[in-house]
Design brief:
With 136 residues, the chain is mainly β. The protein has a single domain, classed as Sandwich (Immunoglobulin-like), CATH 2.60.40. Helix content is 0%, strand content 69%. The chain has no helices and 9 strands. It starts with a strand and ends in an 8-residue tail after the last strand. The mean pLDDT is 92.
Length: 136
């Protein structure tokens, strides 16, 4: 199992045929005042599984932390790895977060682990000024 994509975006969904749609991907949020509350954002993670992993139980954990290691968001889930044929199978998951409060400027890190082992990460930067969150 490995992470093939980890992104922050304005909106995410699945459409007909299971296609994932990510709209407004970003890695930076700006604001004039901190703490800054972002009205709605999505964390999107795509996982890839080798054929021999299909059907096995999987535990995934996502944790968003600040530069001091303080957890702002966390989600954990258990599921069965998708079965593929002779090629790897992928699974896209999107998590909606409303009214996320970022206490200060700096780099925030999304840690992704599978089975208790780190398998990926994504960075999100909060800056003074820059692109500011908009109400949907």
């Amino acid at each position: 199992m490995r992470v093939t994509l980890a992104k922050f975006c304005d909106y995410a969904c699945h459409v007909d045929g299971g296609k994932a749609t990510l709209i407004g991907m970003f890695d930076t949020i700006g604001g004039s005042d901190f703490p800054l509350v972002h009205p709605t954002l999505f964390i999107c993670v795509e996982l890839e599984f080798q054929p021999m992993e299909g059907g096995r139980p999987v535990e995934i954990k996502l944790v968003l932390i600040d530069e001091d290691g303080k957890e702002l968001f966390g989600v954990q889930g258990n599921f069965e790895a998708p079965k593929g044929d002779a090629r790897p199978a992928t699974l896209m998951q999107a998590f909606r977060i409303d009214n996320m409060s970022f206490p200060k400027e700096g780099a925030y890190r999304l840690d992704i682990s599978g089975g208790g082992q780190p398998i990926g990460e994504a960075l999100l930067y909060l800056v003074r000024g820059g692109p500011q969150p908009q109400q949907p």
